[in-house]
Automatic annotation (TrEMBL):
AMP-binding enzyme C-terminal domain span: 225-308
Location of the AMP-dependent synthetase/ligase domain: 1-160
Pfam families (alphabetical): AMP-binding (PF00501), AMP-binding_C (PF13193)
Signal peptide start-end: none
Name this polypeptide is given: Propionate--CoA ligase
UniProt keyword annotations, A-Z: Ligase
The keyword Membrane appears for this protein: no
Molecular functions (GO terms): propionate-CoA ligase activity
Amino acid sequence: MGHSYIVYGPLIAGMATILYEGLPIRPDAGIWWQLVEKYKVTAMFSAPTAVRVLKKQDPAFLTKYDLSSLRALFLAGEPLDEPTARWIADALGKPIVDNYWQTETGWPVLTIANGVEAAPSKFGSPGVPMYGYRIKLFDEHTGEELTAPNQKGVLAIEGPLPPGFMQTVWRDDQRFVDTYWRSVPGRQVYSTFDWGVRDEDGYYFILGRTDDVINVAGHRLGTREIEESIASHPNVAEVAVVGVADALKGQVAVAFAVAKDASGLEDPAARLRLEGEVMKTVDAQLGAVARPSRVFFVSLLPKTRSGKLLRRAMQAVCEGRDPGDLTTLDDPGALQQVRERVAAGTGGGS
């Protein structure tokens, strides 16, 4: 994605590109917008993780610079939750364009192609199917196609696949077929291994990976759904939810959150109050079954250097297992915080 969007695409179109590497808070939280003003940037492309980092910073940085040249902010690489999308859209007053694709697809599967046909964006949705993709939703158990609005199913693509799409696994055609084309019962379709729903207007909403599902007392809950609910709390900047083995319920949801304003959270009573507020938020939006068993507050979440959350490592720490290969971990201190909060079992502090 980096070379396609930063190098080849702009060069083919005769455009100049500015590449900014690192957290968007160095030297301060206005660096992105300072660059937009200085170089009259017209389009920005980044990841939701970077925007969530900005939610903890002084909002004055968002209005300090002249952003009149900026036409849109494009975000991709992971699901863009509605609270984050709405926050940055309101702060900048610019269109926020989400898009969904995979390494295997080679180019966006779901987005809004305003350059071809203008259409409104919907917060929390990457958009509609792009040209060349026949997108459908299927029941994970029966393989039945789900055609009614707002039904949760596995997002799959009917063949033939468009140009640029993954064609096989290197020297292992059978593995390609078995892995991608035979996972939906009774269907020969390419599975994205992502949950999704489609609304009455044909817009898709990605709910997370099919293997990021928590089975709580027989209820199958997507971690993305719980994360989005927690992120809607006004004092939550970032959150990660993992499923942790539980002798009674099979699994329970455990959340790790970064507070926008962490002042006072060194006090155990203040942490418990905020934890209770977060749980009530999930109760009201998703029901008691989705309520996390604990909400631990940390100052940063374990991520790879490219900004992906290391949920499996967090889950392993919660279950007392070896988190495995951590060579891609950006800051070892983040996972150490998770260990300390879980070991203390007190909700932690920031």
